[in-house]
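Worked problem 6 (solution included).
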Amino acid sequence: MALGVVMTLAAAGGALARDSERGWGFLVDKLAHDGIPRDRVLQVFRDDRVDAFDGLQFSLQPRESPALYRHLRTRQTASLARRCLGDYREVFEAAESRFGVPSNVVASIIQVESGCGANTGRSRILPALARLAMAAEPENLERNVDRLTLMNPHITATHVSSFAYWRAQHLEDMFYPEVKAAFEIAERLHVDPLEMRGSGSGAFGIPQFLPRSYLWYGVDGDQDGRVSLYDPSDAIPSCAHYLEQYGWKSGLSRREQRNVIWGYNHSDAYIDTVLWVASEVESPTPAPPTAKAKVQVAKRRRPAAKTTRATTSARAKSTTRAKSTARAKTPAHHPH
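Solution. The predicted structure is:
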């Protein structure tokens, strides 16, 4: 939706409407305008489980720190991914046969994303997505323009304002459809939309999909008539399907593999971690000897060295004694 249309919708709602809906009036109006029953939307955003909207700060150039994944690029992560693959080998092999994505790559992704389902998140995903979808709400946008102008004195105010408008619209275009998809999933699964749980950024399930990815790539792997991203039987083929749809196929170069995984998460650090773990799952690097093992080796060598020195010393003393005895028995002058 164009920013001008957004501004018009907000103006039509007015400050009173925004206040009466605990700051969510802008989003409520948009969702109702796009066909989701207003009473259903209001029921969600008037619920005490949803905090009032108090603003969303965003940056002009968001960057994900490489340190975010450093703790995952370890032998332990690779070992756990290998165990995950072993625990659900038949599901992985079926997904690989169907979608052509190597099992070690899928195992690596779901291990990095959620620890193979051990940590799928406890946040309510709909409010998390809704906050991000409110980036271009007029008052929120104005506050961010003022803040970013002060933070970037080396950039003209006009340039900051233009960039901030673009950034806010980009966030809205990305996350507003996810809010709509969350309502659709709740309706489809007959669940309370506020009890859908996941990460603080709105992703959920073992592969940590956003709602639209669930609708587009979710696979009913166990054929029970329902796609559950919390069930490995569905989550594993869903992840493989996602990568296949983004272009994974046999014979990809390393660069092409990176391009596919970029579609999963726009982060070079994330891609580096996933591919490293996948490589370790497929062909583990031999572990270096531990400090304890080195000490044990050294201890085994020391006695041998001492024995050698002791033997050498004993031999030297024996030779000396033999020579002394020989001298004592031989006269200094032979008689004629």
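Discussion: The beta strands are 123-124, 197-198.
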